[in-house]
Write a structure and sequence with these properties.
There is one protein chain. By secondary structure, the chain is α/β, with parallel strands linked by helices. The protein has two domains: 6-286, Mur-like, catalytic domain (UDP-N-acetylmuramoyl-L-alanine:D-glutamate ligase, 3-Layer(aba) Sandwich), CATH 3.40.1190; 294-425, Mur ligase, C-terminal domain (Protein-Tyrosine Phosphatase, Chain A, Alpha-Beta Complex). Helices cover 40% and strands 16% of the residues. The protein contains 16 helices and 16 strands. It has helices spanning 6-16, 26-35, 53-66, 95-109, 116-130, 167-170, 174-181, 200-209, 248-251, 254-269, 278-286, 310-322, 341-347, 368-376, 389-400, 412-425, and strands spanning 43-48, 71-74, 86-88, 91-92, 135-139, 156-159, 191-193, 213-215, 220-224, 230-235, 238-243, 294-296, 301-304, 329-333, 354-357, 405-409. Strand 12 and strand 13 form a beta hairpin. Helix 7 (174-181) packs parallel to helix 8 (200-209) and helix 15 crosses helix 16 (412-425).
């Protein structure tokens, strides 16, 4: 084995390929075949989309697990530990298992310079096969057509939504981006589309492949019952009553409701809908990856969300409007320089009282000083400078006050930086 620790493997993988992103299936496909990962693959679900793909993938895996299946879930990126990316039956993979997986990939690759994401994707696939999972649920990292997870043929695919993000890699409009995401479809195999008006490029791709599509709002939908806490999931003239308990009406509104409907559609397309029990549905749809409108109760309340593009900013704005607090709202924010920031600010106009921009350790990130200048140009904005995440936490908490809320958003790395600073500030206990 080349290295003894997971961190050593990860540090080395960052240097193995001269480019961080090199979209191609040639390298990763060749290594996958050397390892026999495609010919011996478990039932595979691929989930793509601009937003919501991590939530749908997590819900699908949780629903399958509730039915008694052994399930591998691969998502990215992670917040605090790499192990979060690779889970079996809801439990993150151990350092030891990941090191063994990486060692197997290292031998199989020969001299091929895999990217960090390609190496991790192959390692996850190897571990899922070794652990004999019944299903592997794989979240697309970027786009779809040339993303590393697309070396596997999806038995069922899901595309949550298509919007503007990563234009430098995927195209400058929804039609171009949709064409890339449609690349996860396979001839004759079903796909769930998690938006009511998908781009024509997605529909055309499905038609050309003969891939049966099921579309939110046309073939399936999720709606609350007129009274009580119940919901009804409907599929082309049939329906299933969902007794989800108190709080479900609030939890399944907006994007989360659409994602839940799409996750149930995937189970239907797998032929497993009839096996779902109320308890299984309740547990499966309550599953959520971290930092998706995640509330941390306290005074002030904290809200963590990885919103990082215009569409997700609009969802965040809608949630804030539907869940007001008595006091001010302060936002700790960092954004990548290549993001379309104007629409993000526009979506949150009037929802944030105080902005606290921070620096994060990424060469792609817009420096906090430059971000502050952009925020100061917004009508009625108040911007507070902070030297580091710890100072930002203190400043945002003071600005929000006991009855307010602190929102942390802008990227995974924004939330990660704040969480790590919070953890570092926790009082340490022990003896001696």
């Amino acid at each position: 084995m080349r290295f003894d620790t997971l961190q050593q493997w990860l540090d080395w993988q960052e240097t193995l390929h001269p480019r961080k992103i090199d979209l191609s299936l040639e390298r990763v496909g060749a290594v996958a075949d050397t390892l026999g990962l495609r010919e011996q693959a478990p039932v595979t679900v691929l989930v793509a989309g601009t937003n919501g793909k991590g939530t749908v993938a997590t819900m699908v895996a949780a629903l399958l697990q509730q039915l008694g299946f052994r399930v591998g879930l691969y998502t990215s990126p992670h917040l605090l530990q790499y192990n979060e990316r690779v889970a079996i039956d809801g439990i993150p993979a151990s350092d030891t298992d990941l090191c063994r997986a990486f060692a197997a990939v290292d031998v199989a690759r020969g001299t091929r310079p895999l990217t960090y994401f390609e190496f991790g994707t192959l390692g996850a696939g190897w571990l899922f096969r070794e652990k004999r999972v019944d299903f592997q649920v794989l979240e697309v990292g970027l786009g779809g057509r040339l993303d590393a997870v697309n070396v596997w043929d999806a038995d069922v695919a899901a595309i949550t939504c298509v919007d503007l993000d990563h234009q430098a890699w995927l195209g400058n409009d929804r039609e171009q981006i949709g064409r890339e995401k449609a690349g996860i479809m396979r001839a004759g195999r079903p796909v769930a589309l998690g938006e009511e008006t998908p781009p024509a490029s997605v529909l055309d791709a499905a038609l050309g492949l003969g891939a049966p599509i099921s579309r939110l709002g046309r073939d399936y939908w999720l709606q609350p019952e007129p009274e009580g806490a119940g919901w009804r999931w409907c599929w082309a003239g049939t329906s299933m009553q969902l007794e989800l308990g108190a709080g479900a009406r609030e939890q399944l509104t907006g994007a989360r409701g659409r994602n839940a409907a799409t996750a149930l559609a995937v189970l239907h397309l797998l032929g497993l809908q009839e096996r779902l029990t109320p308890d299984a549905v309740r547990a499966g749809l309550s599953a959520s990856p971290p930092a998706r409108l995640q509330r941390l109760p306290g005074s002030p309340e904290w809200l963590l969300d990885v919103a990082h593009n215009p569409q997700s900013a609009r969802e965040l704005s809608g949630w804030l409007a539907a869940h007001p607090v008595p006091g001010p709202v302060a936002a700790i924010v960092a954004l990548m320089a290549d993001k379309e920031r104007g629409p993000i600010f526009e979506a949150l106009q009037g929802r944030v009282d105080v902005w606290v921009p921070i620096d994060i350790p990424s060469a792609r990130a817009l420096p906090a000083r430059a971000l502050a200048q952009e925020l100061e140009s917004l009508p009625g904005s108040r911007v507070v400078a902070a030297e580091n995440p710890a100072a930002a936490i203190a400043a945002a908490s003071a600005a929000a006050g006991p009855g307010g809320r602190v929102v942390v958003f802008g990227s995974f790395m924004t939330v990660q930086a704040v969480l790590e600073s919070m953890d570092a500030a926790e009082p340490q206990t022990g003896t001696g």
